[in-house]
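INFO  loader      accepted 1 record
INFO  loader      residues=301
INFO  predictor   begin
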Amino acid sequence: MTHEVPLPPRTGLPTSEERLRAALLYAQSDAAAPPTAHPAAPHRAMITGLAALALRCFSSAPSLLDLERIDVLVPDLGEPTGPGARAPLPAACSYTSAHLVRTRILPEPELITGLPVAPVPRALADAVAQLADGDEVRRLLVEAVRGGHCEPHPVVRELTRARLLGLPHVADAVDSLLAEGRALTEGRLYEMVFGHGLPDPCWNVELRVPGGPHLGAVDAYWPDQAVAVEIDARTPRAGAEAAWDAYTHKREALEQLGITVVHVTPEKLRDSLAQQAAVVRTALMAADEQDPAEYVAVLPR
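INFO  predictor   done
INFO  writer      dumping tokens
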């Protein structure tokens, strides 16, 4: 729902901050709240969509001055009836256009320059919902990960919740998002090994029982200690349950052969690299006290 509110004329155009504050003030006003809303219900609002990404200095998002409207995320307390009412806005603005995005799952806002702003994954989903250009969507998603704003998993979760993954241009962009996230995570794994003095493993290899079946791929493997590291980069997409079953089966098969599997996630490698290095080092040291593992062939992936 978009409302454009004319205000008394003033000299010059409104600043970006004035437009943002005006849109928030409208969204938080009684006039913007649905008439069915309970009077005691909290009416929180936060900037979302392209405006939220612009506030975070996304180079692939339009500047705040170039945006024709400001998306504001508000609680979905019921649909309004009749013509949209108009709330008074700061006289500093000559006009503003506020687009209310209603949701039943309201995230915790983050403060940027004193303004409540939706988290990056939610802001991305609200922005993507308005975009039909696949290249534009891809640039936004890739920058979110490459710029360190968030991990791919929360973005895919929000896009799934918004039922956007069925759109071909969004699905293609998500593939690029996951590839970017995978590359960054593998870089952190290399940093963990070399930066914390771990022995050099075999990287990105397939394990196989000689003369038997393939056991699957691992991201790092120490043959002498029979220790493997695998990055869990599963995302909440279609087929996620089957992927989890396959992962569990592979891990059980490796452990039955005496191979220790250390499971790491992109979040753990990002937030606690030293701790993850300690876990791997402990597994390598413990190998000397365990029964020798079955021999497996190590093949390049």
